[in-house]
Design brief:
Strand order of the largest sheet of chain B: 4-19-15-18-17-16-8-9
Strand order of the largest sheet of chain A: 2-3-1-4-5-6
Keywords (chain A): Nucleotide-binding
Protein name (chain B): Rab proteins geranylgeranyltransferase component A
Distance between the termini of chain B: 45 Å
Strand content of chain A: 15-25%
Bound molecules: flavin-adenine dinucleotide, guanosine-5'-diphosphate, magnesium ion
Number of strands of chain A: 7
Order of helices and strands of chain A: HEHEEHEHEHHEHHE
CATH architecture of the largest domain in chain A: 3-Layer(aba) Sandwich
Number of helices of chain A: 8
InterPro entries (chain A): P-loop_NTPase, Small_GTP-bd, Small_GTPase
Oligomer: heterodimer
Largest interface: A-B, 49 and 65 residues
Shape of chain B: globular
Number of strands of chain B: 20
Protein name (chain A): Vacuolar protein sorting-associated protein 21
Number of helices of chain B: 15
Radius of gyration of chain A: 20 Å
Helix content of chain B: 25-40%
Organism (chain A): Polyrhizophydium stewartii
Shape of chain A: globular
């Protein structure tokens, strides 16, 4: 698997600030990225993997299932004085036959529910996922409804912007139309999510559930979670710790 | 929805061997179809919510579920317990809020409105478990992982590890003369303890030092390699108690017959495995998974397989499985799949078109859910309760988990009791529950306690060669041991038959550490 990416092309909102020295100090304090688990949901072939690949690698693969050969991809998003590190879990195709594992959606703080704006049935599927999220997930989860394949809107649109927007409004979802193919509005999905995530409560909540917050350097976190990579491979248990 | 038709390998069952194998095959470029008749991952290893867990136990033949409580000695002893204070009105409110709770309260506590404070407390406890059912991840077949063992090593080298979260079991106990004692985990522990004389301590140190590097110390045991380990231990001048600690709490031999016959070479290997795991992630040797150990491993290896293109269908009911010249043909739910090879979990062997010889072992187990710790006040811990004259013929192991592993809600504890011996009876497990209850009473005067006693079947192919014909193989259901490590070797053997010469989980580059 390719290593998780951490380059930062994310040109998220930031710079307008008149950056007083105090603000800079605050920024310093918050420089440690805040980790947010984001899951993708939606019918097969609506372009979930393509959206991730556009966001993380800024690339698109025509007519083929993009291979995302990684546990999950990471991408940072800078927002005012905070850095958000999205840990993005793609379905790896396990949604096709409703075979997603609980591990997939556990502790998700954000979800992108995608549909294909040329296929009305895919919006119905998206609505079912939203319902599932509202029933099962953490009530504070930030959900973005995304109509993908905006590049096809002029020729093959099957879902009107108004209809989807109205549904999103009544369900309290973020809503955008985007194109993984052209890249149009893809960044905005993640920036909008980043803005809406309740960051202050997040760090504390993560601590409680035992996930390492932030960049996650080695060592057991304060919550006692074990990082398997904590010790170099062959340090033996000797000296003090072992039974001799 | 049109599924791709042909695959290199089809796998039926999402037990641990199957999932590790699936990931290895997909990583090696094979097209993998992975099916399960159940709608969840992990087969027997699955973690369940409280109501599902109780229903699964109740569905097993001869299982028993009971609730009991002990009254506080004084008002100040009363624990801030989930639903354990209050009155019958509070119970009625609880039942009204959670309709399925009423059924379990009636089943476990009787239909009548409880009269005594104890019965009321028990009913409220059961109701609170069901009301918060989703906050449990209870395993019928719980397990622990060696910090330095085949599974953790594979998780690290394959990079499957980052999907999962682990916690260290922070204490290890050993029951002797009805006392729970800490098993020493290092030099300091051994010399601090008051109970052993200095000479005994030196002998123990000498033995453990040798065992940690037993392969470099062959001269010390070679003559005894194939002779019983128990005799070898006796010959080291270790007293019966220290020998028992080594045999049961360190080498994890739970079965009295095995304790009498395990060879010195095998006993030292298992002692070494434990000692070698100390200090890798902390003072103790064993890890458990958050949300469950086996079930999470199965999900993680499945996801890894999917990331490399494996196709997953849970809840798939095959109508027929046939072996043809073109391959194994699986039909069901209006779909047909053809695969060059088929591997099935032992529980699915009856669906195969070939005769399969299986070995079945039924092991008794028990699970406690209580509002107070049982083994010790450290939330996550483990205990060995060795065979003891008058107490139990075979040893059992106990694992205590808590909200710290999301096994249960805050304020509760679970203890799983595992026997490695098919000779252990239901009564042995009940006796173990009685001793554990007594240990809990010493820690905590008031408690509410639910226990479930049940038997799980462990099935494996009779021969190590799992191939029943040139295309079809059968793999084991969970071994029944407290550790799951053997599944890696089994998956590797199957992989090497299916993909001769390919690399089983090539070492992946570790990602650069950011900031
Ligand atoms: C789309 C979707 C589908 C889902 N489908 C299923 C499904 O089919 N089956 C299923 O079982 N679950 C399902 N879930 C639920 C999922 O497994 C988690 O339980 C859920 O995301 C966590 O939300 P919660 O309501 O438990 O959060 P809360 O109750 O608010 O818990 C907050 C946090 O505490 C953690 N937590 C949970 N239990 C404990 C505990 N015992 N002790 C300490 N902390 C705990 C949770 O992980 C969570 O992060 C689904 C979730 C989503 C988003
Ligand atoms: N025209 C167009 N095609 C897209 C877009 N996004 C994805 N696709 C195509 O849709 C198909 C399915 O995309 P994929 O990302 O695999 O969808 P997933 O199954 O939801 O992950 C592929 O052929 C993609 O090339 C888009 O924005 N515009
Ligand atoms: Mg995809």
């Amino acid at each position: 698997m390719s290593a998780a990416r951490s380059a930062s092309p994310a040109g998220a909102a930031s710079s307008s600030s008149a950056a007083a020295a105090a603000a800079a100090a605050a920024a310093q304090a918050n420089l440690k990225p805040i980790q947010v688990k984001l899951v993708l949901l939606g019918e097969a072939a609506v372009g979930k993997s393509s959206l991730v690949l556009r966001f993380v690698n800024n690339e698109f693969q025509e007519n083929k299932e993009p291979t995302i050969g990684a546990a999950f991809l990471t991408q940072k998003c800078k927002l005012d004085d905070k850095i958000i590190k999205f840990e993005i879990w793609d379905t790896a195709g396990q949604e096709r036959f409703h075979s997603l594992a609980p591990m997939y959606y556990r502790n998700a703080q954000a979800a992108v529910v995608a549909y294909d704006l040329t296929k009305p049935a895919s919006l119905e599927k998206a609505k079912a996922w939203v319902k599932e999220l509202q029933r099962q997930a953490n009530p504070n989860i930030v959900i973005a409804l995304v109509g993908n394949k905006l590049d096809l809107a002029s020729t093959a649109r099957g879902v009107s912007t108004e209809e989807a927007q109205a549904y999103a409004n009544e369900s309290g979802l973020l809503f955008l139309e985007a194109s993984a193919k052209t890249g149009e509005f893809v960044m905005d999905i993640f920036t909008e999510i980043a803005k809406k995530i309740p960051l202050d409560t997040l760090a504390a909540a993560r601590q409680r559930t035992g996930l390492t917050s932030g960049g996650g350097a080695g060592g057991a976190s304060s919550s006692g979670r074990v990082d398997l990579n904590q010790n170099p491979a062959n340090s033996q248990g000797a000296d003090g710790n072992c039974a001799c | 929805m049109a599924a791709p038709e042909s695959f290199d390998v089809a796998i039926l069952g999402t037990g641990l061997t199957e999932c590790i194998l699936a990931g290895a095959l997909a990583r090696a470029g094979k097209r993998v179809l992975h099916l399960d008749t159940l709608d969840h991952y992990g087969a027997q290893l699955a973690a369940r919510h409280a109501a599902d867990f109780l229903a699964a136990v109740a569905a097993l033949p001869d299982s028993e579920i009971g609730v009991s409580s002990s009254a506080p000695q004084s008002a100040s002893d009363e624990q801030p317990v989930l639903g354990a204070d209050g009155d019958s009105e509070a119970l009625a409110a609880q039942l009204a809020a959670a309709p399925d709770a009423a059924e379990w309260v009636a089943r476990l506590c009787g239909d009548a409105v409880p009269e005594s404070p104890e019965r009321l407390r028990e009913a409220r406890f059961v109701a609170s478990l069901i009301a918060r059912a989703r906050h449990f991840n209870l395993e019928l077949v719980p397990a622990v992982l060696y910090s330095r063992g085949p599974i953790v090593d594979l998780l690290v080298s394959s990079r499957v590890g980052p999907y999962l979260e682990f916690k260290l079991l922070n204490d290890m106990f050993f029951e002797w003369d009805q006392e729970m004692e800490k098993v020493p985990s290092g030099k300091d522990d051994i010399f601090v303890s008051k109970t052993k004389d200095l000479l005994a301590k030196r002998r123990l140190m000498k033995f453990l030092t040798m065992a940690l590097n037993y392969l470099d110390n062959e001269h010390a045991w070679q003559e005894h390699a194939n002779r019983p380990f128990c005799e070898f231990l006796a010959g080291q001048g270790l007293d019966p108690k220290m020998s028992a600690v080594i045999m049961h709490a360190i080498a994890l031999v739970g079965d009295a017959d095995e304790a009498a016959t395990i060879t010195t070479a095998d006993g030292l290997e298992r002692t070494h495995r434990h000692l070698n795991s100390l200090g890798r992630y902390g003072k103790r040797a064993f890890l458990v998974g958050m949300y469950g150990t086996g079930s999470e491993l199965c999900q993680a290896f499945s996801r890894y397989c999917a990331v490399f293109g494996g196709l997953y269908i849970l809840g798939f009911q095959p109508d027929s499985i046939e072996s043809t010249d073109e391959g194994v043909c699986i039909k069901g739910q209006d779909q047909t799949f053809v695969a060059d090879s088929l591997v099935v979990g032992a529980e699915h062997a009856a669906k195969l078109p070939v005769p399969v010889k299986l070995v079945e072992t039924a092991l008794w187990r028990a699970t406690i859910i209580s509002n107070a710790p049982v083994l010790g006040t450290t939330e996550l811990s483990m205990a060995a309760l060795p065979p003891q004259e008058g107490a139990r013929e075979n040893g059992v192991f106990a694992i205590q988990l808590s909200a710290d592993t999301c096994t249960c809600p805050e304020g509760l504890y679970t203890v799983s009791i595992i026997s490695h011996s098919s000779k252990s009876t239901k009564q042995d497990l009940k006796d173990a529950l009685i001793s554990l209850h007594a240990h809990q009473a010493r820690l905590q005067s008031a408690s509410v306690w639910l226990d479930a006693v049940y038997q799980i079947k462990h099935i494996k192919p009779e021969t190590e060669d799992a191939f029943m014909d040139k295309r079809i193989a059968v793999c084991s259901s969970p071994s029944g041991q407290i550790v799951l490590e053997d599944h890696v070797a089994e998956a590797r053997r199957l992989f090497e038959r299916i993909c001769p010469g390919a690399i089983f989980y090539p070492e992946e580059a570790q990602p650069p550490e950011d900031e």
